[in-house]
Amino acid sequence: MRVRFWVVAVVWVVVLGVGVGWAAGPSGKTCVRGVLEGEVRAGKEFVRPIGNGLEVMLEPLASGWILRVLPAGGPRPAHDYAELATPPYQSVSPLLISTDYSFRAQDAVGWNPREFRFAADGRSFAQLAEVYSEYRKSAIPSEDVKGRLAERVSQAPQGRLEILDAHLVPGMADQAKAAATVASHFGSTAHRIEQPADGKVTPLGRVTWMRFRISLELPVGFRPDKGVRLERSSCM
From which domain of life does this come (predicted)? Predict the structure, then answer.
């Protein structure tokens, strides 16, 4: 099953250019970005409001963290605003800073930076969720549904997570093929190697702490939270 998901992942990356830093904005175009910086320890969460009634979260997992964009307050939806805008689904994802899918801790850190997309408001999310629901109805979605979903995803603003520093217990396993495709910047990312508390090494290891920067393209009309630093730069 994971092989199938990995094939789907490659297709999404090639078609949409999302997830591994290949996307590029139109030449000469300037965008407004909202920037947040923070740090988080294993087992802890990071949550900050970004505006438009949304918040960005690094939600803790047993394997690391997953980046989410969610409504601030109120019931939590079945899917989040970054999840549906960042295919492939149920597979290797730039939203997972973790040792899932046989990524070692050093691979999780070495996939740096990470590009993703997110729905910037409730209306955009509802439109994306509607097409996603059609996409999931069939084991083999129609070309029409795949095309409409790809169009919605391509219209979503981009975000970037950059790991500025990390502490980790490295994994001892050989690097998986999926990780080798994206995790090429471990050596150039600031990091500190730690020893396992119990003295026992594991195949995948663990990221124990990281300091990071999250940058979000803010579309026209987006109302940023006062805690978000605004920058103007070329579009991602």
Answer: Bacteria
Strand order in the sheet with 96-98: 46-51, 54-61, 64-71, 96-98
What's the pTM? 0.87
Helix (H) or strand (E) holding 153: helix 143-155
Which amino acid is present at 90?
Answer: Q
Q: 26 in a domain, yes or no?
A: no
52 closest CA partner among 223, 229, 193: 223
Is 25 part of a structural domain of the chain? no
Q: Are 55 and 47 in contact (CB under 8 A)?
A: yes
**Amino acid letter, 77:** P
Per-residue pLDDT tens digits for 81-118: 999 999 999 999 999 999 999 999 999 999 999 999 99
Whether 28 maps to a domain, the answer reads no
195-212 pLDDT per residue, tens: 998 999 999 999 999 999
- Short-list 207, 210, 212, CA closest to 196: 207
How many domains, the chain? 1
